Amino acid sequence: MNTLTGSTLWINGILATMDPALRGDYGLLTNHVLITREESIQAVIPREEATGIPGERIDLRGALVTPGFIDCHTHLVFAGNRAAEWEQRLRGVSYEELAAAGGGIQSTVNATREADFEYLYKLSEGRLAAMAAEGVTTVEIKSGYGLDLDNERKILRVIRALREKTGMDISPTLLAAHSVPREFSGRPDDYIDEICLRILPELRKEGLFEAVDIFCETIAFNTEQAEKLFKAAAVLGIPVKAHNEQRSNTGGSALLARYGGWSTDHIEHLGGEALQALEKSGTVAVLLPLAFWFLGDTHRPPVSLLRQHGIPLAVATDYNPGTSPFLSIRLAMNAACTCFGLTAAEVLAGVTRHAARALGRGRTHGQLKAGYRANFSIWAVERPVELFYELGLNPLLHRVINGRISRFGQKTDKES
Ligand code: DI6
Ligand code: FE
Q: Whole-angstrom Cα distance, residue 139 to residue 70?
């Protein structure tokens, strides 16, 4: 029996495979056919070898195909907004000053605690739809605006419902260590204990998250507190990641590397001393240029050093109400070039292959390659750089998830 029976052949596309084994930028292939079967990519083969292979043929008419974009750092589930705080920041009040006055993350925590499940779900579903419209097929979503057992659970259950109902591939992260909640004001160590002894194990029992995150910063938690959390996660076999060196050089990245972290995120103020440790641990550096931009930051991450050490660079939106109210992965890609000096090929790897690795999905997502998940986006452009060169118009034609052309919220039949 022909093993390719039941396959779909996607013909006449330009394939930006992002396969590092292929030469040239983007692993670009023309005159090749992408073959999928059920939810997987079965093969990528030269056109002439595909003649005679049975299966449905879908003519892409010269469109560009990329792996589905992966936004590997978002805080998508929250209520309220912080537009009024932004007005204050525009008048010169700093992010840290707002936080010290009870605003910042705490104000979003207040609004999110008041919101019920249904309301949070509705808000979040709309946001996810906006991401999907730009070719995103995988999203990491953090909790972190609940800061107590019940509210962190509520947020993570919203994330689980989004995963079940929208068809989006979602990686949920526990970020209970986002900020010290008002009940623990002045007692950050006690709150870390509450997370390690209660919140983490309880919510783990429900299988509500894949990884654990912490905001390691002067206005949040120090490295000793982070280490305590990493140890608690390690005992349960849960991968860790962290918001590190966003506003100051805390040493969080070097610590995280010792615990084999999936990703170290932000790292504008990363010092050279952490680089070897990161290189050794294989931790991905997640760059978040929209938070840098919206905060009016000027201190850039050490991109040249990261390159020299061969540390994989990912790019994400950091979508959140305080420092990055932007649901656009394409804008983040543009800003990674304009603010941080990444090349176009680095940026595309940053939202595909490297972002997959940052979510522990490096062997299954982020490349157009045999054995990988058939998640890809089809675009009305000729060159990959056009995906983030001109914004305001959206060149997305189709998203394919698990081998099927998918409209957000409903999976439809394949169509040409
Ligand atoms: N760093 C960020 O950029 C966001 N969280 C974090 O740890 C900001 C979250 C917020 O201001 O609501
Ligand atoms: Fe963040």
A: 6
Tell me yes or no: is domain 7-68+367-406 CATH 2.30.40.10.
yes
Q: Which residues have CB under 8 Å from 96's CB, separation 6+? A: 218, 219, 247
Predicted confidence at residue 4, as pLDDT, reads 58
Rg of the chain over all Cα atoms, to the nearest angstrom: 21
Q: What are phi and psi of 146, to 5 degrees?
A: -110, -55
Instruction: Return the amino acid letter for 231.
Output: K
Cα–Cα distance for residue pair 141/131, rounded to 1 Å: 12
Average pLDDT over residues 364-374: 98
Ligand 2 midpoint to CA 116 (Å): 23
Rounded average pLDDT over 242-261: 97
Which of 3.20.20.140, 1.20.120.450, 3.40.50.300, 3.40.50.1820 is the CATH number of 69-358?
3.20.20.140
Q: Would you list the domain boundaries of the chain?
A: 7-68+367-406, 69-358
Identify the pLDDT of residue 102: 87
Pocket of ligand 1 (CB under 6 A): 75, 104-105, 108, 178, 215, 243, 246, 291, 318, 320-323
User: Residue 137: which H helix or E strand, with range?
Assistant: strand 136-142
Q: Which of 318, 319, 324, 326 to mutate to test the pocket of ligand 1 (most atoms within 8 A of CB)?
A: 318
State how beta strands 8-16 and 28-37 pair.
antiparallel
Res 5: pLDDT: 62
pTM: 0.96
Interhelix angle 117-132/149-166, nearest 10 degrees: 50
pLDDT > 90? residue 416: no
| 349 DSSP β-pair partners | none
User: Cα(283)–Cα(262) distance, rounded to whole angstroms?
Assistant: 5
102 Cβ contact partners less than 8 Å away, ≥ 6 residues apart: 182
217 CA: nearest ligand 1 atom: 7
263-266 and 284-287 strand pairing: parallel
- 86 vs 95, 104, 283, 322, 326, CA distance in Å? 9, 10, 33, 8, 14
| SS3 state of residue 193 | helix
